[in-house]
């Protein structure tokens, strides 16, 4: 079985964006040192447009070959006329309202999203599945998450969009590694304790 990894940016107090989900205040921490880390360790998580700008368009995927996101997260790309924000990956979007995929690289999941993720996990591949977000989809897929990669930015929001839009549940993870950067960013990797 391959892994479902929730690779996500959040504040110190565990929010993935402001109350509307806007995460743009985190972008200022993507400085040269941290960007070099992302480019070498997680290049496929940089948007296709960003990869072009950075000159890493042809770089091989390191951790993931598939991404799944909720429609509200995907909407941010659609709003700027991008239908395949992560063209270097196979893309799935969970939605009950979209009737037709706007892009041949994007598969819509309108039925049982947990079951679709289980099917993806059962596929043979050396690379994993990136759960991109947002909060609602991550809450629904919490039981399927095998790994967390949490990019924590040195910001306290006080309130905002939580990492998981789900009911209270005590779910244990084991810390695998911590990478610390000069600007205060931490990347913590946890495995699910089953
Ligand atoms: N900090 C970060 O790294 C990060 C990463 C990603 C996203 N975000 C933020 O997260 C925000 C969006 O999060 P969100 O929680 O509002 O929404 P979301 O999880 O991205 O998307 C929710 C939508 O997904 C669809 N959906 C959810 N469960 C489904 C199911 N079981 N079956 C079919 N469709 C399903 C529904 O779409 P329909 O309404 O079409 O049915 C639902 O409205 C954005 O503002 C974005 O900025 C932050």
From TrEMBL:
<dbReference type="Pfam" id="PF01872">
    <property type="entry name" value="RibD_C"/>
</dbReference>
<dbReference type="InterPro" id="IPR050765">
    <property type="entry name" value="Riboflavin_Biosynth_HTPR"/>
</dbReference>
<feature type="domain" description="Bacterial bifunctional deaminase-reductase C-terminal">
    <location>
        <begin position="2"/>
        <end position="186"/>
    </location>
</feature>
<dbReference type="InterPro" id="IPR024072">
    <property type="entry name" value="DHFR-like_dom_sf"/>
</dbReference>
<dbReference type="InterPro" id="IPR002734">
    <property type="entry name" value="RibDG_C"/>
</dbReference>
<protein>
    <submittedName>
        <fullName>Dihydrofolate reductase family protein</fullName>
    </submittedName>
</protein>
């Amino acid at each position: 079985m391959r892994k479902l990894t929730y690779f996500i940016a959040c504040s110190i107090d565990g929010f993935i964006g402001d109350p509307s989900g806007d995460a743009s205040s985190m972008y200022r921490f993507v400085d040269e040192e941290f960007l070099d880390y992302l480019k070498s360790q997680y290049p496929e998580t940089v948007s296709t447009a960003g990869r072009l700008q950075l000159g890493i368009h042809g770089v091989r995927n390191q951790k993931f070959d598939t991404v799944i996101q909720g429609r509200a997260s995907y909407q941010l790309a659609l709003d700027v006329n991008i239908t395949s924000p992560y063209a270097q990956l196979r893309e799935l979007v969970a939605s009950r309202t979209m009737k037709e995929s706007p892009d041949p690289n994007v598969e819509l999941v309108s039925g049982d999203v947990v079951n679709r993720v289980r099917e993806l996990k059962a596929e043979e591949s050396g690379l994993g599945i990136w759960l991109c977000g947002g909060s609602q989809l991550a809450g629904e897929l919490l039981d399927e998450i095998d790994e967390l990669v949490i990019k924590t930015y040195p910001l306290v929001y006080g309130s905002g969009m939580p990492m998981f839009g789900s009911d209270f549940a005590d779910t244990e993870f084991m810390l695998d590694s911590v990478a610390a950067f000069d600007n205060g960013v931490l990347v913590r990797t946890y495995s699910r304790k089953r």
